[in-house]
Amino acid sequence: MTEHKAGFVNIIGNPNVGKSTLMNAFVGEKLSIITSKAQTTRHRILGIVNGDDFQMILSDTPGIIKPAYELQTSMMDFVKSAFEDADVLIYMVEIGEKALKDEKFFNKIKNSKIPVLLLLNKIDVTEQEIIEEQVQYWQEQLPTVEIHLISALQNFNVTGVFERIIELLPASPAYYPKDQLTDKPERFFVNETIREKILIHYKKEIPYSVEIETEEFFEDEDIIRMRAVIMVERDSQKGIIIGHKGSALKRVGVESRKDLEKFFGKQVHLELYVKVNKNWRSDSRQLKRFGYNKK
C-alpha cells in the first residue's frame, strides 16, 4: 500500500510575481484574486489539493514589501507565519529580479532546513540567453535550492513542479477533510471578489483604502442573497466608489455577481453599499475585526 503524504507548501515572493496564478492553477479553482496591481493579496489563503495518497496544503501569502502602515505590518506577519509551518517552500521570482524586498526573509531562504523550490516565472516573455543568465545568477545566490522554469499564466511546467512537490511532501495523514478546498469561509470569497473588481477599475490610492465586509449571506436552494459593505477611509473616496449616478458602483456589482455565480454554481443576488470607516488601515482594533491582526 502506498504511504500517504501531507504537508504545507507555502508560496512567497515579491509583489506581482504570479503567486496567486500558480496557486489557482494547482488547486483548479480561483481562490486568490489576481490583478496587475501590487498588494492584491492581503491575507494568507490556503488551497487544499487532495489525491488518493496525498494532501497538499498550498498557502498564498501577500507579496513581500516594507510596511508603511499597520495593515501592511499585519500582511507581513502572514508571510512570517508561512516560514514557520512550511514543509516545502516555494520562492517565486520573475525575470530580472535580484532579491526579496526584505533581507531577513531572503536570509531565511538561504538558511532554510526544508526543501526550497525557486520558480523562475514568466519565462514565456523573455529570450533564452537571459533565462540562462538568470538561472546562473540564482544558482550563485542560493546554491542549495532547486530551480524550476515556469510560466504560471501559460501553465508551462506547472504540472512538473506539482509532481515534484508531491515527492517532497512528508509522510503524514491528511490535515483536513478530503472534500475541503480551503480554510476560508464563503463570505471571504465574496469580499475578495468585490475587492478584485475595485482593484481593476479604480486608480491611485482608492483600491488600497478599501475593505469589504459581507454582512448578510443567505443561501436558498436556487439563489444566494448577499449584502456587502465597501468601506473607505474618506468621504471623497465614497463618492469616487459610487460614481456618477451610481454607475461605478453598479459596474462593480454586476461584475462581482457574475463571478460569484460561477464560483458558487447558482444564482446570486448582491446588494452593495459604501460606508466611511476613517483610518481603518492604521487601527489595530479594526484590523483584528477584518481578520488581519491576530495578536
List keywords for this structure.
295 residues, 36% helix, 9 strands, globular, single chain, six-stranded mixed β-sheet, Rossmann fold, alpha/beta, 2 domains, three-stranded mixed β-sheet, 23% strand, 9 helices, GMP Synthetase, Chain A, domain 3
Kindly describe this structure.
The chain is an alpha/beta fold. It folds into 2 domains: about 160 residues, P-loop containing nucleotide triphosphate hydrolases (Rossmann fold), CATH 3.40.50.300; about 100 residues, GMP Synthetase, Chain A, domain 3 (2-Layer Sandwich). Helices cover about 35% and strands about 25% of the residues. The chain has a 6-stranded mixed β-sheet with strand order 2-3-1-4-5-6, sandwiched between helices. It has a 3-stranded mixed β-sheet with strand order 7-8-9. A hairpin with a 3-residue loop joins strand 7 and strand 8. Helix 6 crosses helix 8. About 0% of the residues have low confidence.
Which CATH architecture of the largest domain would you pick? 3-Layer(aba) Sandwich
User: How many domains, in number, for the residues?
Assistant: 2
- The arrangement of helices and strands along the chain is EHEEHEHEHEHHEEHHEH
Separation of the first and last Cα atoms = 43 Å
Specify the CATH homologous superfamily of the largest domain. P-loop containing nucleotide triphosphate hydrolases
Strand order of the largest sheet: 2-3-1-4-5-6
CATH class type of the largest domain? Alpha Beta
| Relative strand content | 15-25%
Main beta-sheet strand count, sense and barrel state: 6 strands, mixed
Q: What's the total count of β strands?
A: 9
Question: What oligomeric assembly is this protein in?
Answer: single chain
The outline comes out as: globular
Mean pLDDT: 84
Give unreliable regions as ranges. 33-39
- Rg from Cα: 20 Å
Approximately how much helix is present in the residues? 25-40%
Instruction: Count up the helices.
Output: 9
Q: What do we call the CATH topology of the largest domain?
A: Rossmann fold
Derived from helix and strand composition plus strand pairing, the structural class reads: alpha/beta
